[in-house]
Write the structure tokens for this entry.
Amino acid sequence: MKITELLLNKDKSSLKRDVKTKTIYSPSLSQMLDEDVEITIKEIENERFFEFNQRLNDEEDAYTMSEFACDMCLAAIVDPDFHDAEIYERFAGAHTPEDAIKVAFTAIEQMSITNTLSEMQKVSPKKEDIKSVKN
């Protein structure tokens, strides 16, 4: 069946993309809490992602890679909720969610979270296509 036919046969309300989530181990938080912990991240909304990328590529904007990684983490991490003052104020010297991210995660860990987001949203070939290429 052609994609057009499939689309036309579907109810409008059912044609939406599920937001992917993933739990990942956090070495920094695990060390701080003396216990192995995982954070939960979710895909970032398209507009937010494009906004961050546009700022990063705008030569007139002094937006740094560090700020980009921090913004990506803030937009993606749902557990713990770094937007909750009760959470972010727990981190030494943190007065904002951005401060807490910088205390909670190393630069490498922030970039790892960003890379995990990219991996979650990658388009990949169907399993059948992979098998046919191998043969």
User: Anything to note?
Assistant: The first strand starts at residue 21 and ends at 25.
